[in-house]
Amino acid sequence: MPDDAAEFTITINGEPSRVAPGTGLAAALINAGVWTIRASTTGEPRSAVCGMGACHECRAEVDGVPGVRACMVVCRPGMNVRTSDA
User: pLDDT over 70 for what percent of the chain?
Assistant: First the structure.
């Protein structure tokens, strides 16, 4: 990215993470090394699968709202994200 000033910070599981404008939350999670976003009812790790909101595997808590599909959200400055893997 040529212009670092355009980046902003979001918080993922209590840790700051720099992202570029227009970055989808699922991509930001993977870029931050968070591959498991939630666990299935049987405890199996889940992450973004379809990338278009159909599978619901990438649900995370965003700014206190549970069950947000990370693949459908664009990051914004100050966003606070919690995964069930945290």
Answer: 92
Closest among 68, 81, 84 to 31, alpha carbons compared: 81
Q: Which residues contact 32 (CB under 8 A, 6 or more apart)?
A: 12, 15, 17
**Contact status, residue 23 vs residue 74, Cβ threshold 8 Å:** yes
* Residue 1: band (very low, low, confident or very high) from pLDDT cuts 50, 70, 90: very low
Would you mind telling me the total number of residues written for the chain in this entry? 86
User: Which of 81, 47, 76 has its CA nearest to residue 62?
Assistant: 81
Taken in order of first residue, the domains within the chain and their CATH numbers are: 4-82 (3.10.20.440)
Among the listed residues 82, 78, 73, 81, the one whose alpha carbon sits nearest the alpha carbon of residue 8: 78
